[in-house]
Design brief:
The protein has about 200 residues and is of the alpha+beta class. The protein is built from five helices and ten strands, in the order H-E-E-E-H-E-E-H-E-E-E-E-H-E-H. The strands form two sheets. The protein has a seven-stranded antiparallel beta sheet, sandwiched between helices. Strands 1-2-10 form a three-stranded antiparallel beta sheet. It is globular and about 65 Å long.
Amino acid sequence: MKKINKLLSLSLVIFLMFAFTQTTPLKTFRVAEGVKISLPKDFQPMKDADIAKKYFTDRKPIAMYTDPEGKADFGFNLTETEWTKDDLAVLQRFYEATIRRTFDEVQFMQKEKKHINGREYILFEFIGFINSDPNAIIQRGKKARYNYMIYTVWQKRVALFQFNCPGGLYRKWQPIAHEIMNTPELRETKEEKEAKEAQAENK
């Protein structure tokens, strides 16, 4: 009997080790001209009506994807305003202030600069809380949302990659978000090519 219990315990340990080391299969998506990123294979483009209903906006991002349950979302967008790479420090302060204004409470996990595939990005990982309406008949408590955002300057505009899901699901989606946000690929611009060539000539 003891031998059987030991075998069962060993089997359980092996199962748990396997379960927690499993990685989600990702597939490369072309989310815009010159922009690629890897997302879970079962992610699908969101319908315009679903975007408007969920995010209360008529301004559609360039790309928006969601999981089969409609819980976890990924979006990509470009700003209209022109910026340069020298503006990254300013952008970091600007977007942090925007995040703090958007939510009633913010718990940052990461806020830093990071190099991904040869580009410098601003990274914000956090859980944002929105208080319930004090005038509501039924009080439902705070709403929490896990967010992982990265920004960079590309083609003189800010390129934004964002992943979010309900706060209660963040432990499930956090490692997947980390995988996703290590895969963006932005096509090299004409200015970047010229800068590289000039740098090579000066060596």
